Amino acid sequence: MSEYDYDFFVIGAGSGGVRASRMAASFGAKVAVAEAYRPGGTCVIRGCVPKKLMVYAAHFHEDFEDARGYGWSVPEAHFSWPKLIEAKDREIARLEGIYERLLANAGVTLLRGRAVVVDPHAVELDGRRITAKYILVATGGWPVRPEIPGAELGISSNEAFELKQLPRRVLMVGGGYIAVEFAGIFRGLGAEVTLSYRGSEILRGFDDDVRKHLRGEIEAKGIKVLLRNEITAIEKHGPGYRVRTSDVDITVDCDCVMFATGRLPNTAGLGLKAAGVELDENGAVVVDEHGRSSVASIFAVGDVTHRVQLTPVAIREGSAVANTLFNNRPTTVSHHNIPSAVFSQPPIGTVGDTEEQAIARYGRVEVYQATFRPMKHTLSGRAEKTYMKLVVEEKTQKVVGAHMVGPDAPEIIQGIGIAVVAGLTKQQFDDTVGIHPTAAEEFVTMREKVLRGF
Ligand code: NDP
């Protein structure tokens, strides 16, 4: 009989926590997972999944228009926000049920409630003390907003999924993933959208050409982008809001201000500091390459570690901790060359180094680019252009970065990601026969290079 109630106590039934729990149980551990809200976590309940469903919804707007070029007579289409939210909620509830069943079938005990760490081997939940050999913190992150007068009048992505009505005029604050994705959703569904970003170009961290291209495309769809702009105050104004900005000449009147200004780790009130767990200045649990915190029996994975805030990364980290602790296989997760996507309209797919990162890392690089009108838009008449880029290290000829803005970019880059992670050369890309007619074939037919960093 073990001296602990459980071998593994996981706090948070999101992507990372659920994966770690199930795997640990499959290795024979006695596992419990505590969830204060709904199993599924950010990704399933108020993140990736509902967001993507809403991106699909928003895209129909253009699909109806494009159909005309193909001979369809499309009667005037009407959109119902409440119907979309209702359908989305049904799907999320279905997925939540699947998560619960996955845990039950794996033999993991799901405990409802908020667990607080009380010492290196114990948590408290609903006044009950529960002990465990190991504790995993997988509590995710939470949206933050700037401290400006009236900030409480705005919403975050959490509330965007629950709005009762589609706002007529939206001010999006921020220029990262969530800002760009939700700006596209609201615009596609018919709202007037203004995006205010404090920097000189949206999507800091992405390849500069990708950033520029996407901004051009979203502006062409009617999203007004304010650069080098910060909002300074929100006031009630008639039925909506009046927003002041750092540019005295720019005031925005709108019905909804949405903050997409980053997410911080959920560690407040978790008892971690008192238990001796080191947190960084963002409140993130500081972990080593195995996910171990400064307390040997406490681990952390996913957004709460504030490294890479992506579901598939949290899942890998969860799996690595389970393997390390219960499968006698110490496992680490590489954070290099992680493919990712922005579900903007059009979407972005990216893997590996941006041109700037590659120059900094390797010095001399070759850049291959293509900008073209997707075939579908010949008949639809839409002016939207696709952009693709390969970054090649000159010395080894390895493709170190692949970037795309255009329809299906996330689907295409997932495959290209395998080649980049495998370290394939430009010649090996060229040796691969293209699939015609596709946009993806451009990745194996780009021949004109530009030398950079020389
Ligand atoms: P991001 O970090 O991507 O973007 C935050 C944005 O807000 C940046 O443009 C940032 O500007 C700006 N910002 C931060 N603080 C302030 C401030 N005080 N005033 C004004 N602007 C500010 O965060 P998101 O909230 O968009 O998303 C959180 C994370 O979730 C992402 O980083 C991503 O990892 C993940 N995610 C992934 C998705 C996907 O895979 N498709 C989709 C959605 C989220 P600056 O650039 O100047 O710092």
Give a concise summary.
The protein is of the alpha/beta class and 454 residues long. Helices cover 31% and strands 25% of the residues. Helix 1 (15-26) packs parallel to helix 8, helix 3 (48-68) packs across helix 4 (81-105) and helix 3 packs across helix 6 (177-188).
Q: What would your notes on this structure say?
A:
The chain is an alpha/beta fold and 454 residues long. The chain has three domains: 201 residues, FAD/NAD(P)-binding domain; 111 residues, FAD/NAD(P)-binding domain (3-Layer(bba) Sandwich), CATH 3.50.50; 114 residues, FAD/NAD-linked reductase, C-terminal dimerisation domain (Enolase-like, domain 1, 2-Layer Sandwich), CATH 3.30.390.30. It contains twelve helices and 22 strands. The strands form five sheets. Strands 1, 2, 3, 4, 5, 6 and 16 form a seven-stranded mixed sheet that branches. The chain has a six-stranded antiparallel sheet with strand order 17-18-21-20-19-22, with helices on both faces. The protein has a four-stranded parallel sheet with strand order 10-9-8-14. Strand 4 and strand 5 form a beta hairpin. The protein is globular. The termini are far apart. The mean pLDDT is 97. NADPH dihydro-nicotinamide-adenine-dinucleotide phosphate binds next to helix 6 and strand 17.
